[in-house]
Automatic annotation (TrEMBL):
This is Calmodulin. Transmembrane segments: none annotated. One of its GO terms (molecular function) is protein serine/threonine kinase activity. Keywords: ATP-binding, Calcium, Kinase, Nucleotide-binding, Repeat, Serine/threonine-protein kinase, Signal, Transferase. It comes from Emiliania huxleyi (strain CCMP1516). Residues 16-283 form the Protein kinase domain. ATP binds at residue 49. It comes from the Eukaryota. The keyword Signal applies.
Length: 294
């Protein structure tokens, strides 16, 4: 059937028992699900059929299938539909969103920030090699596998992802979150669907989490936290940013600040690539020693 070809609705709703809500995004509600026969706990991403085009979900499934399995990426296990929703059955990631930990814990260190960057970078390496750009990297889409302090991070939500060279991505109303959008994405230019947009977003995330280390967490292009979407996009386009040079940054290592600056290069051709990022000593396996150096 056409269902099988598209990879959407290949499974059966009666195999799963839906439980409490785990999270909510722009398009979906995610609920805990139990596989009836095996008792396995999973996450079920439900997208209302009303107001959603089937093609959009087929695209998300196609991307997830092309991504396959990776230690730092949420894996697709099954798909089904109900009368009013499409459902993607995903591996359960139960430690919550990364930022809740960054903001809540008093123990978040530069070493922890480097570990998050390293894991996300390895996920990006995996997808970029397969010609996939995530395009919606943000703290809400980075999940922790457990409540442990050093829990692994997994990237989720490929709803806005594209295959490079594919042309225009499927339209979904408001696309992405302004706060993590690169200048080229905001301009809508030819680089707007290239891999470098994911590195920009990672730079914004690193800036935010590093500045939380100083207890003054702020967005690189919105230091006062006052900007609306229009003001924010103007600041990003004008690259109005202090380059981590303000006095508050003095206690963050120069290596970490350099990584933020490399990721927030306004020209995508000058921005750090995943390979360069992973080769940097601060991000690499040696992250512990550089944070001790300050
Ligand atoms: P949307 O496309 O609507 O943004 P997401 O795929 O980002 O939907 O899921 C929304 C939220 O649900 C996430 O931010 C996260 O909190 C939670 N979530 C998503 N996938 C999982 C999962 N596999 N395990 C646990 N929680 C998840
Ligand atoms: Mg999301």
């Amino acid at each position: 059937t056409s269902n099988q070809e598209s990879g959407l609705c290949t499974g059966d709703a009666s195999d799963y028992e839906l439980r409490q809500r785990l999270g909510e995004g722009t398009f979906a509600e995610v609920r805990l699900a139990t596989h009836v026969r095996t008792g396995e706990q999973l996450a079920c991403k439900l997208v209302r059929k009303k107001g959603t085009c089937r093609k959009e979900l087929e695209h998300e499934v196609a991307v997830l299938q092309a991504v396959g399995q990776h230690k730092h990426i949420v894996c697709l296990r099954d798909t089904f539909d109900t009368e009013d929703a499409w459902a993607l059955v995903l591996e359960l990631v139960s430690g919550g969103e990364v930022f809740d930990r960054v903001v809540e814990t008093g123990h978040f260190s530069e070493r922890d920030a480097a570990a998050i960057v390293r894991q996300v970078a390895s996920a990006l390496m995996h997808i970029h090699r397969r010609g996939i750009v995530h395009r919606d990297l943000k703290p809400e889409n980075l999940l922790l596998v457990s409540g442990e302090h050093d829990a692994d991070v997994k990237l989720c939500d490929f709803g806005l992802s594209v295959f490079t060279g594919e042309g225009a991505p499927p339209l979904r109303g408001v696309v992405g979150t302004i706060a993590y959008m690169s200048p080229e994405q905001l301009r809508g230019d030819e680089f707007g669907s290239e891999a470098a947009v994911d590195l920009w977003a990672l730079g914004v995330i690193l800036h935010l989490s590093s500045s939380y280390l100083l207890l003054v967490g702020y967005h690189p292009f919105d230091p006062a936290g006052m900007a609306d979407d229009l003001a924010l996009s103007r600041a990003i386009l004008a690259h109005k940013y202090d380059g981590c040079s303000s006095t508050e940054w003095a206690s963050v290592s120069p290596e970490a600040r350099a990584v933020v600056r490399l990721l927030l290069a306004p020209d995508p051709r000058e921005r750090a690539t995943v390979r360069q990022l992973l080769a940097s000593p601060w991000v690499g396996a040696d992250a512990a020693s550089s944070s001790a150096a300050t």
